[in-house]
Amino acid sequence: METKIREILAAQGKLTVDPYTLGVHDDLFAVGLTSHASVNVMLALEDEFDIEFPDEALKRATFSSIQSMAEVVGKLVDEAA
Question: Which residues form the Carrier domain (predicted)?
Answer without folding.
Answer: 1-77
